[in-house]
Amino acid sequence: MRSEIHVIDSHTAGEPTRVVIDGGPNLGEGSLESRVAQFRNEFDHYRTAIVTEPRGSEVLVGALLCSPTDTTCLTGVIFFNNVGYLGMCGHGMIGVVETLKARGQISEGSCRIETPVGVVTAELHRDGSISVSNVESYRVASDVKVDIDDVGTVIGDVVWGGNWFFLAREPRQEISPERVEELMAIAAEIRHAINDAGYPEVDHIELFGEPSHPEADSRNFVLCPGMQYDRSPCGTGTSAKLACLAADGKLRAGQSWVQEGILGTSFVGHFQWSEDSDRIRPIIRGRAFVTADCRLQFDDEDPFCWGVHRTTVAHEAE
Ligand code: PYC
Q1: Mapping DSSP to helix (H, G, I), strand (E, B) and coil, where does residue 127 land?
Q2: In this structure, are strands 204-209 and 218-223 parallel, antiparallel, or unpaired?
């Protein structure tokens, strides 16, 4: 039997997103959180088929559009990657909005979009850039110390920015594409140590160094859950950084922070204090470009129909 899934690909500051327009799994009408559980438990082969080889790459983030439970929202979206599911995804949300624009479903102005971790507001600006007012972000632990071979003591913060992050403040790193392998190895070691230190939920590690552009405030490197690094400055990672700057009184509400990523592309962020709490609402602005509009083909005679690492036989055995 043959079937197909309509997807639109884009990249945001270099990081790719594949939006599923049609043909994805039907997860019903429950809460988005419960739909993620259903996706994981019953339809996980769609995740590997859509984002990993042979149709995708380990770095791709998928975005399944679905009906929102909050009727003020234009759409719901569930983000996924090579190893599982994400709460929010900043670069991915900018990619989703660019995709909706390409399909004529959104024009200049703002709209609300539901995710499994809350509703975000996206604004499409006249210059083509898109800003995302993310879910509330906050730091849960500061000055956490872990010892890493070859690096020494690493000091940083555990922060929610729509995903769980450890932001390694010290030591600072030289962030450059030439050092990717080394940065991956350091970040992976830090993640082990942080998980062992009582923060098993942390799956993103963010390192910092000097920016390469005079207008940027910082440059980061973000290790994602599936041993891939974010090509963009990471929207949820930048949100986590803003939460730390706010908590430390180093950035005022409304003041801009230019976060450069490993490729030298940047997001411009600022924040607002949340009402009645010491949490912040980060706003991240960047640009995305559509790269493909195509139909993924599924043939059940193809041994790699559901992904190279999930054979048809393995799927049938599930
Ligand atoms: O932009 O938030 C982000 C993100 C998370 C993982 C990859 N990109």
Answers
A1: coil
A2: antiparallel
**CA end-to-end span of the chain, whole Å?**
19
Is the beta carbon of 236 within 6 A of some atom in ligand 1? yes
Q: Is pLDDT at 312 greater than 70 in this prediction? A: no
**CA 39 to the chain's CA centroid:** 18
Q: State the pTM of this model.
A: 0.96
Active-site residue flag, 234: yes
| Neighbouring residues of 106: CB distance < 8 A, sequence distance ≥ 6 | 74, 97, 100, 124
Matching residue, tokens 């932001």: 167
What confidence tens digit (pLDDT) does each residue in 250-289 have?
Answer: 999 999 999 999 999 999 999 999 987 899 999 999 999 9
Helices marked H in the chain = 32-42, 44-51, 90-102, 180-196, 235-247, 312-317
CB 121 within 8 A of CB 132: yes
**Residue 167 contacts residue 157 (beta carbons within 8 Å):** yes
Alpha-carbon distance of 2 to 279, in angstroms, equals: 49
d(CA 143, CA 224): 22
In this structure, what token pair is assigned to residue 26? 């039907």
Residue of 66, 73, 89, 224 with catalytic role: 89
Give the pairing type, strands 257-260 and 152-160: unpaired
Which residues, other chains included, contact 119 with Cβ-Cβ below 8 Å and sequence gap of 6+?
70, 72, 73, 112, 113, 135
Catalytic (active site) residue 111: no
Which tokens sit at 276? Answer: 């009645």
Distance 254 CA to ligand 1 centre (A): 22
Each residue of 76-85: pLDDT tens digit? 999 999 999 9
Distance (angstroms) between ligand 1 centre and the Cα of 299 equals: 31
Tell me if 305 CB under 6 Å of ligand 1: no
DSSP helix/strand/coil, 33: helix
